[in-house]
Description:
The structure holds 2 protein chains of 2 kinds. Chain A has a single domain, classed as Rossmann fold (3-Layer(aba) Sandwich). Helix content of chain A is 39%, strand content 12%. Chain A has helices spanning 5-26, 31-36, 38-48, 73-82, 124-137, 156-167, 188-191, 197-204, 216-228, 264-272; strands at 64-67, 144-149, 173-179, 182-183, 186-187, 207-212, 236-241. The two termini of chain A are 30 Å apart. By secondary structure, chain B is α/β, with parallel strands linked by helices. Chain B has 2 domains: 9-174, 3-Layer(aba) Sandwich (Rossmann fold); 189-315, Rossmann fold. Chain B has helices spanning 12-26, 44-49, 61-71, 84-87, 92-100, 129-134, 147-156, 205-218, 236-246, 261-272, 292-298, 303-315, and strands at 9-11, 30-34, 54-56, 77-83, 107-111, 140-142, 164-167, 172-174, 189-192, 197-201, 223-227, 230-232, 249-256, 277-282. In chain B, helix 8 (205-218) packs across helix 12. The chains are: A alpha/beta, B alpha/beta. The interface between A and B is large, with 39 and 32 residues.
Amino acid sequence: MSPDIEKLTGIATQVRRDIVRMVHGCQSGHPGGSLGCADYFVALYFHVMRHNPDFHMNGKDEDLFFLSNGHISPVWYSVLARAGYFDVEELSTFRKLDTRLQGHPTTHEHLPGIRIASGSLGQGLSVAIGAAITKKMNSDPNLVYSLHGDGELQEGQIWEAAMYAPHNKVDNLISTIDVNGQQIDGSTENVLSLGNLRHKWEAFGWEVLEMNGNDMQDVVRVLELAKSKTGKGKPIMVLMQTVMGNGIDFMMHSHKWHGIAPNDEQLAAALLQLEDTKEDY
Amino acid sequence: MKKYTYSEKKDTRSGFGAGLLEAGKKNKEVVALCADLTGSLKMDAFQKEFPERFFQVGIAEANMMGMAAGMTIGGKIPYTGTFANFSTGRVYDQIRQSIAYSNKNVKVCASHAGLTLGEDGATHQILEDIGLMKMLPGMTVINPCDYNQTKAATIAIADYEGPVYLRFGRPTVPVFTDPDQKFEIGKAWMVNEGTDVSIFATGHLVWKAIEAGEKLAELGINAEIINIHTIKPLDEKAILDSVAKTGCVVSAEEHNRIGGLGDSIAQVLAKNNPAPQEYVAVNDSFGESGTPDQLMKKYGLEADDIVKAAQKSISRKQ
């Protein structure tokens, strides 16, 4: 089925509105990476993945997604709500006392769509590999997806997992790295250079693809290509170029919006740049 | 004093290995992961019987814990195997976030706990692991006393839904519990009923407590001995019932005196029925190289140390 790119882009615009409104509503959270990954999440949940909003933890007979860089929870919560996992009105509770939408994703409050806690970085690739192995043992042909930040690659556990998956032919796994080149203290290049990521992941034995994470057409094309490369003995790594803060001009190209919320004026300015396509919560 | 005898000594890690094989036969969802210590953990039999359910992860404990958490999604029951130090301190954050906070059905199985790992020295002898694990909300902490009990516990935890820390060791110790015992998580085991002092022991110290009980009997002291194989959830009723009778306590464990079984008991007593308590435990220090017997003696974890502690605890009764 060929996707309606215009429709997907419209959903992504609404998701970006949700993100800035959620972060503004509690005056905390991480808008930058969330905005950059909006197109990827929408493509996954509205076109690429086979998934069931009637949530079951065991995830049998459906694709699974794991978010390793849990701080971009706003984009995931928005997409889960827009995909029917829970009421969009609940987005207004983000990061507030007694919410299921904790600052970082957790199973603890039983929010539909979340299968593991994340936030402390570097752990999600191992989890995704474990889930992918269980799928194989259960003869479940569906796939496992995971998303990671580029700064997160500085954690050692990532490279333990990076070694394990190709050695053991975990080829039902499509992982993606959000290569936005930014982390809290500045650019990844200045803080701790990641070097040539394609060469690194290829050297570890992964099938490496690249995509423009802020071009919906390219996101859909490359994720479909990734699917076609599963089952061939190698795990897939997609290097996704994004711009942190994508969609809001004054938030783009800077690490400054990694983890701060817009004030009232900034929110108004941001919303002027994002059409209300699916109705605000 | 009830008479306990034994015909052989075996290591508790071998009890784990035998239990893992049995658990694997009983439940096809049981899988095992090991970080390059298959022989040390006695996981060979499981690996041989179920090669497709055994996962060699290499020297990468953090990845092992994360993978185990992920494998539960879809119904597997993963048992991870490495030394206690690398099962806890090295991977605390992975266990905390991906297993405990996420409430995953992972069994963290830890061998070579405590001083009795011996000659490798303090880098490998963890004395803080019970404390680390019991502080995690929702974590069950089990420290069985001999081969048979470790085997029974290993089988039993497969039927319990939730994260478990199972602690065992390297040295051979007397096998004195029933080979056909039913292991009940959280249910203390009455080793000997007594009236003068309650000795609450865990792991390798249970046999030392039995030896101490015999020596105390010769001195005319009737010690109650209880095996606290489950440190969390703690069998508070068994502890309080015993102390109501005896009025004083000795706790005995191969662990730092800070944060272990003794502290868990002290908390129960302080809240419900304050009573004198003496600790037989390592006095807030790291271990060192030596044979297991030399180390147990040097660090004050022998039967004689329990005897002295019992006498002191009794002397503090009002």
